[in-house]
Amino acid sequence: MDLRQVGLTYERQSGKDPSGVYYQSDVLQILPFLIQAYRARVQCIYLDPPFATGKRFSIRVKVGEKDWKSGRGSLDQLVYTDRQPIEDYLSMMRQVLQGCRELLSDSGLLYLHIDYRMNARLRLMLDDIFGEKNLLNEIVWAYQTGGRAKHFFSRKHDTILLYRKTRNYYFDIKSVAYVKTTGRNNHMKRHVDPDGRIYRSIRSGGKVYTYYEDDPVYPTDVWDDVSHLQQKDPQRTGYDTQKPVALLDRIICSSSRPGDLVMDLFAGSGTTLVSAGKQNRRFVGVDCAPYSFHVVRSRLKEWNVDYYAPPCIGNPALRVRGFTGIGYYEVELLEYALESGLGPRVFSGMDALDNWSVGYFRDGAFEPFASAWRSRSTPNIETHLRLPVFTGTPMIRVADVLGRYFFYELNKDGFEI
Ligand SMILES: C[S@@+](CC[C@H](N)C(=O)[O-])C[C@H]1O[C@@H](n2cnc3c(N)ncnc32)[C@H](O)[C@@H]1O
Questions:
Q1: Other residues' Cβ atoms within 10 Å of the Cβ of residue 364
Q2: Which residues line ligand 1 (CB under 6 A)?
Q3: What is the DSSP track for 240-264?
Q4: Do 155 and 52 share a structural domain?
Q5: Among 58, 94, 271, 362, which one is most buried in terms of CB atoms within 10 A?
Q6: In this structure, is residue 14 part of a structural domain?
């Protein structure tokens, strides 16, 4: 049937609450708009910006049935380059951090995730913007990954700076208390109470202190109990620099209430947004990389999300057939192939297609009704999708392994009976 490619910038996905918004944009471009829309309304901001590493970061994309079955991506694609001159980097960060202060509510908190490279400079910058007295913590996230250095001590921690906006900040340590399973108080005397609970005691300064082993403990500013994502972790999306959801759970649970607004201006693979959704917080995410949008969309399938992203440029070969049933349209995907010569390799069959959706164009947005996603259990893409007959223009959206996506209008007269 006839297809007409259209350049949409807005997609409205229906799902469950909480709701969220994602903008594919350069942070400095969108910041003035965000400040206008969310000034003093954000409870918690987490930023995991580039660390000024001078490196390039990629994604390993899963292609077709073979990769989805094995769980390993075979296509390496550049996501972003962390190589801007240091003055430009610092100028960007100053504007972002100043903007964050305006975005935070009076009870709000800012978390800035960095490493040894920019720690000193960004901390002084934050002292300047937020005020030295508003630094609450320098959190050390210590992990055990990779090899060991021989010419200096291996760098096995990141730093997360925590600033409050005002003295009336919200923070709930109890919400992130946990029961320590090993290595606790073992220099103390062990007892068992009449109910069989184990406790330890110690005498100090003439007083006896007792601690039950199953008492919850509050995290300190050294987080060595949240491990970095291992190679085979099911959370892994293939996106370099992806952080574990458990890290964001601790930040979001302690620093916001259900229903509060959480923001991440360097959203990457969307870890903050996933954690916020899970913890019933509303969320706003921003990232400039097209692959960020690609991964975020696949991770936020369950929630109400508005996506804003610039249209992609391209003209892949796409063929579909449409059928009309009683009260529904059925769309069959016959072909999706990249433009000849495009991409680092030739993809066979539907391998270049990552996912697709059918829906309607209504009130300026694409609203998906049914989508086909590959997964480990269904590595082959579903080629038939059904759409209930509603008002609006029927459309399809296709997304490929190059991180591009395209919208097409379906001509209602082209559906076969
Ligand atoms: C360290 S990664 C964030 C990873 C993320 N925390 C996660 O768990 O996946 C930094 C992100 O900042 C994005 N980025 C870099 N410069 C940017 C800019 N000027 N505007 C918006 N995003 C930017 C990159 O595309 C990258 O996704």
A1: 9
A2: 26-27, 48-50, 79-80, 239, 241-243, 266, 268-269, 271, 286-289, 292
A3: TTPPPHHHHHHHHHHH--TT-EEEE
A4: yes
A5: 271
A6: no
| Listed residue (49, 44, 99, 96) closest to 249, CA to CA | 44
Regarding pTM above 0.85, the answer is yes
pLDDT tens digits for 6-55?
A: 999 999 999 999 999 999 999 999 999 999 999 999 999 999 999 999 99
- Distance in Å, CA 50 to ligand 1 centroid: 6
Q: Clarify whether residues 141 and 34 are in a common domain.
A: yes
Q: Measure the CA–CA gap between 242 and 295, rounded to whole angstroms.
A: 11
User: How far apart are the C-alpha atoms of 42 and 286, rounded to whole Å?
Assistant: 14
Number of domains in the chain: 3
What tens digit of pLDDT does each residue of 149-198 get? 999 999 999 999 999 999 999 999 999 999 877 665 567 888 999 999 99
Ligand 1 centroid to Cα of residue 93, in Å, is: 12
Residues 279 and 343 grouped into a single domain: no
204: domain range?
Answer: 179-215
